[in-house]
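Record pair follows.
FIRST:
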Amino acid sequence: MRNLSILKAARGGRAPRRAMPLVLLTCLCFFLSAEGSAADTACRKGQSFDAWLSDVSAEGARKGLTQRSLSELQGLSLDRKVLARDRGQPSLSLSFTEFADRLISRNRLSRGRAMLDRYDSTFAAIERDFGVQGPVLAAFWGLETDFGGYMGEFSSLRSLATLAYDCRRSELFREELFAALALLERGDLTPEEMRGAWAGEIGQVQFTPSNYLKFGVDYDGDGRRDLVRSVPDALASAAKFLRHLGWRANEPWLEEVEVGPNVPWDKAGRGHYRSRSEWARDGVRRRGGGRLPADRVDAALVLPMGRDGPAFLAYRNFDIFWEWNNSSNYSLAAAYFATRLAGAPPMRRGNPAAMLSSKELLEVQTRLNRLGYDAGPPDGRLGQKTRAGVRAAQLAFGLPADGYPTRALLERLRRQ
C-alpha cells in the first residue's frame, strides 16, 4: 500500500502461471549493483550506525518504549540491499495493457474468485461494518501479496533502521521504525513475524508500520491485530484504512465504456469530473453500446492509452485506489482487477498507437518544457504531469487532446 517504489510484475510461458505479488518483483524493474549501495551519511557528521542506533534506543525509551521492544535494535546492521532498492531506477516502461496483463493473470483471477467464495461471510461482514465491497479488498490483497502467498523476506526492523539512518528520507523512516517497535511493544507481532518488503511494509496487505498501528483491526477476536497470519484481521484493516481515505459505501469505482468520435478529449483525465449525463451527451456509452444513466453522478473519463485504447469512467471511489498507491498504472490495474472479480468481462483493447520508449518520452518531456508546456521533470515516465503537458500541446497544435503522447506528436515537437 502506498508503496515507496512502483513495482512491476512479470509472467511467462505457455501455460497460465501465478502472477508475482508486488513485493517479489523489484528485481525485474530496478538496476541493482551486486554489492549494494552505500548510505548517504552527510547528515550524520561521522556518527556510526551503531552509535546512531543507541540514540534511537534512548529516544524510544523517552517515548515510553520498554526494553522488551528496544532490545530488538541491538545487533542490527546496515542492509546495503535495501539501500540499492531505494536507489534503484525503473528499467522499463509498460503500457497499461501490458502492466495489467502481467499483474492480472488468469491464475490470479481464478484464485481471487476462489478467495471471495472461501471467505464469503468475512467479506460480507466487513462490507456491513466498513462499507467496502469484497472485490475491492480481494484486488488489493491479490496484487500486494498474492493473497498472502508472499509477503516479503526482509527484516522489517533492519530495513527501517537502514532507511532511517540514511539521510535521504531519514525522518519518514525514523517514525516508521518507532511505529514498528510500538507494534512489538503492543504484542501484535513477534520479531520473527516482522518480515516484509524492502521498505518496511508488513503483512498480507502490506501496511506501513504507522498505518498498522492506526488501522489494524482484531477482526477474528483473538486479542491480536495480526495482519500477517489472520486473513480477517488483514482484510478488515484494509477496509478500515480505505474508509479513512474516503471510500463511499455502495458506490461504484470503475466502469469500462465506449467512446465516440466527438468526445471532448481535453475534458478526459483522472479527477476531471463531469456528470454521467454530460458524458452520455458527448458520445460515451456503456460497454456494448448501452446508454449511460442521465444522472448527476460524477465520473471522469480515463484513457490510459489515448482515445483509441481502453476507456473507463472512474467514479469518486477511484480516487481511493490512487490514494492507496499513486501510480497511474497500479491504481487503474487494481480498480480494473476489482471489476473483473465483481463479474466484468475482459476490457476491450482497441487499437492504440504504440507507446513511446522511455528515451522517446524523455525527449517529449524535454521538448514540451522548452516550448512552455509544463511536462514535469523529464524522467522518461508517463505521469499525470506529463499527460497534462501533452494535452496542452495537442490543443495548441489542433490535435485530439487525449493526453497520450505518440510518435506523431514527437515529430511535431521536433519541427517546432
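SECOND:
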Amino acid sequence: MDPTIYFTLLLFLLPLYLILRRKTSKQLPPGSFGLPIIGHSLSFLRAMHTDTVEQWFQRRIKKYGPIYKLSLFGTPGVFIHGQAANKFIYTCDSDTVVPHQPPSFKMICGERNILELNGEEHKRIRGALMSFLKPEVLKQYVGKMDEEIRKHLEIHWHGKQKIKVMPSMKTLTFNIMSSLLFGIEQGASRDALIELIQQISNGSVSLPINIPFTCFHRGLRARAKFRTMIMDLIKQRRAALTNETALPQQDLITCLLNIQNNDNSIILSDEEIVNNVIVLMIAGHDTSSILITFLVRLLATDPTVYATISKEQEEIAKSKASGELLTWNDLAKMKYTWRVALETLRIYPPVYGAFKKVLKDFEYEGHTIPKGWQIVLASCMAHMDEQIFPDPSKFDPTRFENQASIPPFSFVAFGGGPRTCPGYEFARIETLTTMHYLVTKFTWKLSCLDNFTRNPVPNFKQGLPIEIQPK
C-alpha cells in the first residue's frame, strides 16, 4: 500500500485514539463491577446484615479512592460519600439525578409517592404533607400524642417485669400514627392495619417475585387491602367535610382533602393520598421506634447521660399538675434530651444512605458518570468524619449545643435540602414525649447484650429485652 495512505490514516486515527484514550481515562471512576449480574450485591447485603457496611465501603475507598464504580442489584453505579457529595445529591437538579427506589418499593408503595417524585411534582406533594406536619399545626397534637403514650405504657409496661423494647416501641409509634394521621382509634380496624403495614414494609424491600408465599406477594396483597381501608376513610372524611362535621385538621387525611389550589382544584388525588400514606406509615413506623430503642439502650449503659436526662425530665414533671398533659412549651425545655437523641442518630442512623438514578451523563470530581447508572450515596459516612466531628466514635451530645456550627449537609439523619424529611417535627415530638414518661416512670437495665443487624434498617435480634421497675 502507498506509504502516503498509511501516513494519512495515521494522521486521521491518532487524534481519534488520543481523544478516546483521554475520554476513557476520565470517563469512569476506578473500581470493579464484580461478578456478572450479581456484582457486589451479596457481600454488600452481608455487610448490611452485620452492621459493617461502613467498613465495607472503607475497604474499597482504601483500594480505589473516595469515588469508585461498583455494581449492586444488577445495576452499574458509582459510590460517593462525604459532605460535598451530600450537598451535590440533595441539591442536584431533577434533570440529572432522581431518586431510585428498589422495584419492589415502587410496585407496592405506588409511583406517586414523595420518595419517587422530583422537581415540581415532589414540591407539590411535600407542600401538601407539610400543611399537616409543620410545627404550628403539630403543636395542637402534643396532648393527643401524650395520651397515646400514657395509654400504651399503662397497658404494656405497668405491672410488667420484662419488656422487649423494639417491638413495644413499634407498636407505640404505629398507634400514634393511626390516631393522629388517620383518626383510627383502638379496635379491630387498627389491629388489622398494623399487620398489613408490616407485610407492606417487608414486601417493599424484597425481591419482586410475585408468586404465593413470597414476601413480595404478601406485600402486594396487603397493599390492596390497605388501599381499600384508606379509600373508605377518604370517603368518610370527604363526606364529613361536606357536612361540616369534621375539623379541617383533625387528622392527616382530612387535612389533605381540605387543601386546594387557588382555583379550588384538588392538590392531591385519592391515589396520591393512598401512596403517600403508605410511605409515611413505613417511614414513621421504623425510624422513631428505632431511635427510642437506641435511647433506651444508651440510658441503660451510660449513667451520666441517664442522670442528666432524668434531672431535666423530672423538673418538667414537677412543674405539671397531676394528670396534666405535656405541652409544646414543655418540649422546648427538653434541650439536653434532644441533643442526646441527635447524637444517637449521628452514630446510629436508621437509614444509612440512598440510591439515585442518573438521567444524563455528568461530570463529578474529574469523572464522567454515565446515564443509566445508579449513585450509591453513603450519606451518613459524613457523621463519622473527624474533620467535622472530632473523635467521631465518642458519644458527645455537646456537639449539638450549637447546631448552626455544624456545616450544612454534614448531619443528614433527616436528609437535607429540599428532601429534608417532612416528618422531622413529628418524630421530635414523639421521641421527647415518650422519653419523658419512660424516664420519669421507670428505671431499667439490659437483660442481655443484644446486637442489632441492618435489614436495611437496624433491628435488634432479640428485640432489646430489659428488666424494668416502676419509680
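COMMENT: Residues 54 and 381 are 7 Å apart (CA to CA).
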